[in-house]
Amino acid sequence: MTSPHRDDRDDLEDTPELLDADDALEEVEDEDGDIAMDLDDEPEEITLVNDSIAYFDSHKDSVFAIAQHPTLSSLIATGGSEGDGDDAPGKGYVFDTSAVAGRPVLPPSYNSNPNAPQQTSTVLKEIFTLEGHSDSINALAFTLPRGQFLVSAGLDGRIRTYQLAIDARNKPSFKFLAEAQEVPEVNWLAPCPAVEYPNTVALGASDGSVWVYTIDASDSANPLQIVQSYFMHQGSCTAGAWSPDGTFLATVSDDMSLYVWDIWGAAAAKGLTNDNGQTVVSLTGEDQRFEVQGGLFSVAIDPSSAFVAVGGAGGAIKIVSLPRIANEAASQAQPQSSKQTKAKAKGGNAGGSQAGVILASVHTQTDGIETLSFSPTQSLLAAGSVDGSIAIYDTARRFSVRRHIKEAHDDFSVVKVEFVRGEGDGWLLTSCGMDGVVRRWDVRGATPSGNIGFTAASGLSKEWRGHRGDGEGGGVLGFVQGTTGERIVTAGDDGIVLVFEA
């Protein structure tokens, strides 16, 4: 039915607009011409490479932390952000790689049956699940020297401890022991290597505090005991490292500060602590010689405990002397020849008992120093940078640049560098990065320029692939390699753990 209020003007407005007849015949020319469809175009082919001999894929999200038992190298713990709840609390796993067979030494043609199926990557299953965190597990550590306990730490500020037992059939089992929560977020965990103080761990927190705990399962009332707590950092405590003998603990912060703590009072007994009575080194950005705009993110102490290296924003590295407590006691007990004295005074080892002296300031790389590692036997320091490069310094020659591998991980951040302890006489270095690749370098020898690209001259001896990378939501966030470096186990941002054979 037609509306009584509708008139002819309404009908005209509702009529579709039509082209004029002359306009309809007009041809519009395309200056660029028609683009023909290329029917021969094929989909881009992507080659996936997996060099692993085994993998663990129970994680449902990124794997942030990985730890290896100090005496049972096949026992691996990993932690990440996935969980069963809607808020995805932290979760971790323990698995055993001992049953994984290595790659055959000879090619298939040498087998008695060349047509037999070849070995593929082995699937690993968890033997224990780490639960109880309300946020991501971002740090894990087995205690030293015997790995009696496993400690997990998370962004919920909680640390949880588990006791390890090995039965008569060498089967491991874990049980929850105790937990503590004193801080908003835990950034890192480091087990103390001192035999005199077993089962001790240190942690650094987002509020700048540093805590040291000792685990004693025999004390049922208080198995997780606070040894020390420090509150001198004014910013987040980003990294920490023990001296190899466990005497000192060095920590750094994004407020540009470095403190080396006298945990057990060895320096205080000799009157070598600072005025605060807690540290042997106290340096902050107020000292312009130590200032690193943007903060400090990495720290390592050399094998002789003579000096500490710290790395920070913009590629800055500072080398600072430590007191020589053990050597002073030895020198008082037994006189040394002039030749021995000169040898100890060589290069960076010339700090003597005077602590807190800035021995060197080096600046080879262009972005933040995320990781540092000293060779166990050679006078070498490796630094990995956000700019994707690795720099090797000679600590016995005024920390001069031995080589700079500019494209070690292309343009992707180097997450970790670590020298192999048991093989290669201290010359082999393993690295991982956000490109998803793990690489092994032989850093012996020097180059005339000291600046080299990613070529055979860079010392690359081997690489392993299998993780996603190249900005595709992947990368390697950490690895462990035991004492020999024969097997490398990785923590992937893609949620996968891979086992590679060197």
UniProtKB/TrEMBL annotation:
SMART domains: WD40 (SM00320)
Amino acid composition bias (Acidic residues), ranges on this chain: 10-23
SUPFAM superfamilies for this protein: WD40 repeat-like
Region Disordered: start-end pairs: 1-23, 330-350
Keywords: Repeat, WD repeat
InterPro entries: WD40/YVTN_repeat-like_dom_sf, WD40_repeat_CS, WD40_repeat_dom_sf, WD40_rpt, WD_repeat_multifunction
Pfam families: WD40
Biased composition range(s): Low complexity: 330-340
WD repeats: 130-164, 230-263, 362-403
The name this protein goes by in its record: WD40-repeat-containing domain protein
Naturally occurring in which organism (per UniProt): Pseudomassariella vexata
Organism taxonomic ancestry: Eukaryota, Fungi, Dikarya, Ascomycota, Pezizomycotina
